[in-house]
Design a protein that fits this description.
Blueprint: H1 4-13, E1 18-24, H2 30-41, E2 45-49, H3 51-57, E3 66-70, H4 79-83, E4 90-95, H5 100-113, E5 117-121, H6 130-136, H7 139-142, E6 145-148, H8 151-160, E7 164-168, E8 185-190, H9 198-203, E9 206-208, H10 221-235
Parallel strand pairs: 1-2, 4-5, 4-8, 5-6, 7-8, 7-9
Antiparallel strand pairs: 1-3
Helix pairs in contact: 1-2, 1-6, 5-6, 5-10
């Protein structure tokens, strides 16, 4: 794991999973001092090392001067585990999002909106890579991300739980502001440009579109996810 946001978020959320931290010996700014202080309180070993050693971890990647070695813990491997005890689930389903930057941004916005999990098909998705973790700024370690074998079957299982499957589609007649949105909802978004696959689209209970008032025709998938998730959160009056 690398980057100040990601490492600090992991330290604060689950310090026992951070095995050790490598910090650029030339960094003596406020961010580096804050990280060192948090690590000391969490009793996590922090080592000052030359920049070239950090470069070696990711082939010269943009580590910002900090790299952490973490323990990869088992994540929930079923929808049942994730939703156990959840009264009104709020989920994000991504069909075909394979860019790690987009996935990281989607995980970040899902966490911010209070989504219980992000789901994606194994054959059309990217896993949680160091890049995903860095872009997500800690959300990749805090928000369950479940990659499923059969997305259509998973959507059917969600329906059996009385969770409405709502797809964001630019061809839909109603906008998300005009549609009736239930409290238990799984928002489905496809990859930018391609959209949802046909079977995924047909599995949706409802299709809505985000109104576009300017000249651009579409939004980045993470921005669209934020618009949809926060509209659900607003209607449910989820306290901040």
């Amino acid at each position: 794991m690398f980057g100040f946001h990601a490492v600090l978020a992991r330290l604060r959320a689950d310090p026992s999973s951070v095995l050790e931290i490598y910090l650029d010996e030339t960094r003596n700014d406020a961010r580096a001092k804050d990280l060192a202080a948090v690590a000391e309180r969490a009793k996590v070993h922090l080592m000052r090392v030359p920049t070239r050693r950090l470069d070696g971890f990711y082939g010269g990647g943009r580590h910002q001067g900090v790299v952490a070695r973490i323990e990869v813990k088992k994540t929930s491997d079923s929808v049942d585990e994730i939703l156990e005890g959840v009264e009104h689930p709020l989920l994000l389903v991504l069909d075909g999002v394979t860019d790690p930057h987009n996935l990281g941004a989607c995980l970040r916005v899902a966490n911010g909106a209070g989504a219980h999990a992000v789901l994606a098909p194994k054959d059309r998705a990217v896993g949680v890579t160091p890049t995903v973790s860095k872009v997500a700024s800690g959300a990749a370690e805090l928000t369950p991300y479940l990659m499923v074998t059969n997305l259509a079957r998973t959507l059917s299982e969600l329906k059996e739980r009385n969770i409405w499957v709502v797809g964001a589609d630019e061809r839909a007649e109603k906008t998300l502001y005009e549609a009736d949105l239930p409290d238990s909802i799984a928002w489905v978004l496809g990859a930018e440009g391609e959209g949802m696959r046909r079977l995924t689209r047909e599995s949706c209970d409802l299709l809505v579109r985000i109104p576009m008032r300017g000249e651009v025709e579409s939004l980045n998938v993470s921005v669209s996810a934020g618009v949809c998730l926060y509209e659900s959160a607003r209607r449910r009056r989820v306290p901040a």
